[in-house]
Amino acid sequence: MKKIRINSIDTVIWIVAILVMLLLNINFKTGKIDLGWSLAVIISAYLISSVQSYFLPRLMQQASNWTVQKTLGLYAIFSLVVALMIGNSTVLFVSWYKNLHLSYGTYISNSLIYTLMTFAFSSVYMIQAFTSRWKASLLKEQELNQALLKAEYDTLKNQVNPHFLFNSLNILSALIPEDPDNAVNLVERLSKVFRYNLQNNERVTVELGTEIKIVEAYLFIHKMRFGDNLQYEITVSAEDFPRQIVTQGLLTLVENAIKHNECSSEKPLKIALFVENNFVVVSNSFQPKNKQFLESTGIGLSNLKSRYALLTPQKVEVVENERFFEVKIPFI
Question: Which of 23, 43, 161, 321 has the CA that lies 20 to 30 A from 214?
Fold first, then answer.
């Protein structure tokens, strides 16, 4: 067991205690100091400090799971016992050595002085111990909160990959009978997108420029299927490319825009991606499919909002009217 080292607080207490002891043993009429008593009290104070420094850390280790009230109660009892035992032993020894007959009042007053002195020494160790326990408790709480947040974030993130895979297979199944030759090209693009997902699976955030490259590949896949019925425009300055967003955030929004809206020659779907203030914006023409034929898990947007809520106080903003549907995701 490692002892608690003497620090500046201990030194101050020792100096004050020695001065008090000398003052109590000065004969102010003659100016003489009873060095015998002073030496005896200093030695006994050293014994008290040694006993406290040895036993109190062990007491605090045993009390790691105790309540504060129980710990303070045992601390008070322990300090009182130490004070009475060492204090009265010192008085008895000095009175025997000098052949003195001391009154009961002397024993009581010395017991009070030793009790106060013992509490002064032991309070230093108790304050240090409680401070250390408090800091350890805060650190443990922070680590637990971080672990819980990571577990919750991973759960949300793991919902995205099956969701994306399901929609991508639907695209492929629709393209194969329509254009078998380009289906091969589509598979290559899909492999690029899934490779991105695998490589960034453990990342919470990603650079905007990296995500845009994958979004472009994803939109190109759909462009092969829908032709001119799908129109998209990405206007983002290269200066914004290093900024961080939630991984697969843009991909989720673009995916939702195509999944939930009609994309036909009568109603071409228009998608725009741009930066506005401290947000990346994905806007699309609002032309929802017939809900009777739409099977939605509801994962996409709610999942994205939940992931952002775990990372930043800035919220995902949604703007919807009769003409367009717009989602703004903040930079991290």
Answer: 321
As for how many domains the chain has, the answer is 2
Q: What is the pLDDT of residue 281?
A: 96
Residue 190, domain member (yes or no): yes
Rg value, the chain, Cα: 38
253 and 192 in one domain? yes
Let me know if residue 134 belongs to a domain. yes
* H-run or E-run covering 263: none
Q: Which of 116, 141, 166 is the last residue of a domain?
A: 141
Count the neighbouring beta carbons within 10 Å of the beta carbon of residue 21: 21
Which residues, at least 6 apart from 250, have a Cβ–Cβ distance to it below 8 Å?
208, 211, 212, 215, 273, 280, 282, 329
Length of the chain: 332
> Which backbone phi and psi does 211 adopt, to 5 degrees?
-70, -35
Do the beta carbons of residue 78 and residue 58 sit within 8 Å? no
Amino acid at 16: V
Amino acid making up residue 279: F
Residue 327's nearest CA partner among 229, 261, 237 is 261
Q: Which range of residues forms the domain containing residue 57?
A: 8-141
DSSP codes joined into one string, 96-109: HHTT----HHHHHH
Instruction: Confirm whether 147 is domain-assigned.
Output: no
pLDDT band at 150 (very low <50, low <70, confident <90, very high): low
In-domain check, residue 157: no
Helix (H) or strand (E) holding 237: none
Same domain, 74 and 23: yes
Burial class of residue 331, CB neighbours in 10 A (0-12, 13-18, 19+): middle
- In the chain, the percentage of residues whose pLDDT exceeds 90 is 19
Residue 126: per-residue pLDDT:
67
Decide if pLDDT at 161 tops 80: no
